[in-house]
């Protein structure tokens, strides 16, 4: 104590200054967004962009994941290369990491390919719907017959492609294939109705025909999506992913969680040994809460569940709120200090030396 | 009162008063005023635990668990800096397992600074800041393995914890480590009290760094926190009195603390 306080006048290097400026600028956007009245935010059109800006900040933060990956590889790679103690565990960890990474990337690529394939069919319905909307709005688009012809040609090509690829493949997904075939037939039938669309203005019959194409196209997209997702679920990549994620990772996590049961019993034994007035109080209140929770408690006394409820809602809630309240106020003060870079020596004295 | 997307005049005024209190306390500290901090046995235990590690030649483990970048991490860093500085001075091995990759870079910087401050910058091993996993229970199992392998003499659990709290604390208990925990998660406090030697509750975590370092900026912030808390306590009492009065005198319901905080800018009639 007694050393002179330096709030923002510490000797800093350029790096520290850049960090402070970025912190301030990053914070001031959110502060101003919160500060200005909602009407003003809407008037300047910030409401729509706010989510994108927030996502941008999240994306910057997500870049740090690379740091974690680098640290893992560096720390455990070092242990494996130099055969340090526990190197086998490190090897298992890195093997697990790379297996999961490769399989997840392959699964992701497979998902992208499926989505792209399904999109080709979804476009049929969306295009037909769009033609109807544009005609009703009188949008400046190519003439109606040209667009309808384009729709007819694209749909024909897509259906031929579907027959040659997706529906040509055999396998155990017969019922799904039948649904796609049925949806494709509906599209073909609805295409025949497009002859009702003539001239530059959309007639009620023409509109109805286009709506039929839109419906049939939508159904085709949905059934094809189900078929392709069903097929991808049977691929080795997906099976591997399921094995690693659901079969290994989730089960290990569940096993860790299950350990809690044992640990809670051990911790409860330690806590409930009556060594002082406080532990006696804790023991009694825990007993009341536990007995009030089960039907046996109600058999002992009707008042037990009520007493349990009172313990949870009054003293317990009061204590919880006090803890949360104190922490929130402390967090607020620290947040202001962080934002304005009013730093203590601990965090900046080593910089630039 | 629901979540507030934008400030109301009442909340803005309260915030301005809070920030003014913070700056006035910083100014007082700058003028040489020494704030009093009550003794917190849990924080004194930090030094004892490190001393014990030095005697036994065992390593020190410090985790911020699920804490992400934010005020709580910043509060933990103050304690970590102090722990790292003492560990460096006593030539102890310090291991800081990490859950959040974002926090890891900041933690590494803080520990490196602490080693430099202790005059042992060359002893700093970046690999002592170990990234385990961003998955809760994968992190917990990694932490357990680490504490067992290192046979930690002291384990400090500071920050935000969830269901893994007891798993982490039990791991330290199993190897006989002296454990000090501090959490802003009230649900986990009971587990820590059962398992750890000392537990700091809620805001004590924010005070720990100031208590250990006695740095004027941190101590002044602590003093400001207490004053802001007093202000809020006064507001709560006024609110209770007003709500009670409104039961007997319906006219008193025309103005309420809740309305003061929730009324928007359109309610200002100038």
Broad shape of chain B: elongated
Number of domains of chain A: 3
- Gyration radius of chain A, in Å: 33 Å
**Could you give the count of β-strands of chain A?**
0
Looking at the chains present, what oligomeric state does this protein adopt? heterodimer
What does it look like?
The complex is a heterodimer of chains A (353) and B (270). Chain A is mostly helical. Chain A folds into three domains: 14-94; 104-234, Four Helix Bundle (Hemerythrin (Met), subunit A) (Up-down Bundle); 273-345, no CATH class. Chain A has twelve helices and no strands. The radius of gyration of chain A is 33 Å and the shape is extended. Chain A starts with 13 loop residues before the first helix and ends in a 14-residue tail after the last helix. The relative contact order of chain A is 0.08. Residues 1-11 and 346-353 of chain A have low confidence and may be disordered. With 270 residues, chain B is α/β, with parallel strands linked by helices. Chain B has two domains: 41-214, Rossmann fold (3-Layer(aba) Sandwich); 221-250. Chain B has helices at 9-30, 41-56, 71-89, 101-117, 136-150, 165-174, 186-195, 204-213, 216-248, 257-262, and strands at residues 60-65, 94-98, 129-131, 154-160, 178-183, 198-201. Chain B has a six-stranded parallel sheet, with helices on both faces. In chain B, helix 5 (136-150) runs parallel beside helix 6. The relative contact order of chain B is 0.16. The chains are: A mainly alpha (353), B alpha/beta (270).
